[in-house]
## 1
Amino acid sequence: MRITDAKVIVSCPGRNFVTLKITTEDGIYGLGDATVNGRELAVASYLSDHVAPLLVGRDARRIEDTWQYLYKGAYWRRGPITMAAIGAVDTALWDIKAKSLDAPLYQLLGGASRESVLVYGHASGNDVEDTVAAVADFAKRGYTAIRAQSAIPGIPSTYGVGRGKLYYEPAESGNPPENVWSSELYLNFVPRLFERLRKEFGSEVHLLHDVHHRLTPIEAGRLGRSLEPYHLFWLEDPTPAELQEGFRLIRQHTTTPIAVGEVFNTIFDCQLLIREQLIDYIRNAVVHSGGISHLLKIAHLAELYQVRTACHGATDLSPVCLAAALHFDLAVHNFGIQEYMHHSAETERVFKHGYTFSQGTMYPGDAPGLGVDIDEALAAQYPYQRACLPVNRKLDGTMHSW
Ligand code: CS2
Ligand code: MG
């Protein structure tokens, strides 16, 4: 089954997406998401200029060999751009293989381990009561797991407070918007938010929160301990995770479950966190972590240490990535939860998919392959628009993690 074409489609239906389409001599084609928010053209060029010419003529069925060929063959290994490009190729080849066998992808990953996939939604508000109302709205929509983010009194802008009700798109056109941050104001505020949420919603609903890389390990330990009375489902990205051993400090101080990994791109970024059980959920995304093949290796390592998967699923990961994640989620034994942020109406028109949402869970569908397609003619009507993620500065102007 020779590859005859590998095409990169850059489109901006509501936000920028990079999609790889690999076609074989049999006419079967597969899709892979290659979107890295704010750095889309870097991946598009990596694919078009350096990878696509290597794919034409290769046997599309040789997924693992192609992965190793592109990973070891790059010499300069790892990193978000390289691994998103490899991830797109890998995902597209799995799509082709499943289509050629006339089976939904999850059937090739061991078959279904569950009936459907638990997902969480994103509620946010401009203050506590606004966030309570937003959580109530998601509960009404049938979500049983809800992430809650609120603006912080005294800080003019912060992560996770969406511009729309259903989804959160942080990238803005032009140069990076500048956000402002105060860990002290944040640490004093968040426990009040979750005390109020538990009072309103009781103990049943799963409540999640994303710190978004902004605390030191000891501050994260303090926050985790202060939130223990409200038994969060998880506290996400409590501290920048380049220093994996920093999480030992957090673990010493709190039993609040920890989720990390959306910015990771290989198993090496998280193998210490997993082996020492410093985290409870690993968040690598199909698109950013070398595709289905590498994500399976991460999941199987995590299974040994009772760490569960929780794939990143923000608006800036395309429906191609979400479809792949849902097949992965349905099959892996140690699945935890799937992030589900709605895409814009334009995105939904460009990417037709078979996945569905019902009562707080999702299902990938049973169409052969990923069950997702791209309308290339419609995609061409949405040209790329330069956009950047915000940057973040402390009150005194010092650069901080966004
Ligand atoms: C967030 C994302 O979904 C999440 O947990 O961390 O919104 C993240 O900020 C974006 O994907 C960045 O592009
Ligand atoms: Mg996050």
Note: The chain has two domains: 3-104, 108-367.
## 2
Amino acid sequence: MTVGARDDAAFSEFDALVVGAGLSGIYALHHLRELGFTAHVVEAGDGVGGTWYWNRYPGARCDVPSMEYSFGFSPELEQEWDWSEVFPAQDELERYFNHVVDRFDLRRDIQLSTRVVAATYDEEAARWMVETDRGDRFSARFLVMATGCLSAPLEPQIPGRDTFTGTSLFTNAWPKDDVDFTGQRVGLIGTGSSGVQATPVIAADADHLYVFQRTPSYAWPAGNRPLDPELQRAVKQQYRELRAEQRRIYGGVVGTSGAIAVPLPRDVKILEASEEERRAAVDELGWAACRAWSDVLSDLDANEAGADLYREMVRRVVVDPDAADGLSPRNLPLGCKRPILHTDYYETFNRDNVTLVDLRRGGIEKVTPNGISTAQGDFDLDMIVYATGFDAMTGALDRIDIRGRGGQRLREAWAAGARTYLGIQTVGFPNFFTITGPGSPSVLANMVVCAEQHVEWIGDCLVRMRERGHTTVEPTLDAQDAWVAQVNAVAQGTMYTAPTCTSWYLGDNIPGKVRVFLPWVGGLPAYIEHCERVVAADYEGFAFT
Ligand code: N01
């Protein structure tokens, strides 16, 4: 095989080409190698880690506890790595993934600073022909897309964005060098997870921080703290049980290390509780009170009653009534967007150097050379931080020119919403695999557990093909249609698909993107059971040639 060949005629050949060196791609490389396949990883970034490489903004931290947001495939790795905090920060995760890459000698098969731009299925050869922005050409039997669910940045179409003479920064492509906010007037656009995490940290140094908020968030204190070494030792002794348990739990998080920030509801309905009982719940449970009821995530009236308790908490913490009102979500179901975990977000609005710009009272009109101009007035700024999110789940795939059988483009096959079987494969795209793809639990569960399960499923499938002398694997149309129907059915009646819900899960944040709920909401155990049942039934729903 020739790697990185520039000769037009030469294709470097591998059994599998893996796109992306985030946690999915790292494990895919290791696992496929262990199974005896040749594999090569192509990664756009200058380093490994995916999300944890790009999103190095101040305050970036995972919302899954460190001892669970870690690989379970190697007991030795589990024992030798020590975590410092309950919820790991970006830099610690980036170090961890680099450690994994070096420990398993993976770096020699990872090609950095290279973006895959096109992948075409050659039906005659039954191989994927892949091209990169550096002119590399690869030929692989299997194409494994480890491109991530939240990796295609959304650059907001705000007029005048390029005219700003100060510094523009994006949370999802943050510079490696430290950014100094000291003495700076900073404007932050966006109050999803990234903006909410960055706000307190930027406010600590900035001369003044203006938070431009279009939609208020539901956000819970993370309760992050140093990880107790005794607790860490105890968890390490039970890691095998923990890993097994993760796959038996809806979101793949056991909470063994004491990190359950948003507890499961009690068996009491808020609609059957008196006003006094509801307020008493706020006194007792604080931010958790709004979700502490069995009906809040299934009944819209109950949900609104829960949201009321949330707004009560905002008023209790944010001193300025005007800011508290601005920070209070309305007409947005609790549980429709991804819950945000933060440290001191609301408390930050009690600082003198922080101003909430509630865009519901007048939106952004344009960015000017001096700052941001809104219907409420102009804001002079030295820096603008865009925390505006991603084209989720399908964006990274859409940005590559992927063509399957008959030259069909993936983005056209998915124009009316992504269609997959198990979130792993798509009709018309043989030997093409999506790790944590649309139609799988992915963003609704612990991403490491999901990625490991997918990689292992794909590995088993490839081994079966090798043993039986198969060339291709692809789902049947019937199986795919049935799976898509099931994915839609389980999402119905949840807050994720409520008529008033707008979210990136539904593609609402991308102009022109069709509104379809993309992940499997039926939980990890049910999903894994489906995958295992398919295998036990001799890969039911998949056609092999
Ligand atoms: O992106 P988002 P994110 N003018 O899409 C606003 C994961 N994650 O990067 O809601 C003004 O949630 C937009 O407003 P609106 C996690 O899964 C996890 O923060 O569309 N505002 C919104 O407020 C998360 O859910 C962590 O009205 C504009 C914000 O920008 C996912 O990544 C940390 C605008 C975008 O929020 C995405 O989070 C970080 C405009 N033109 C991320 N365009 C952890 O904690 C957009 N907005 C683990």
Note: The mean pLDDT is 95.
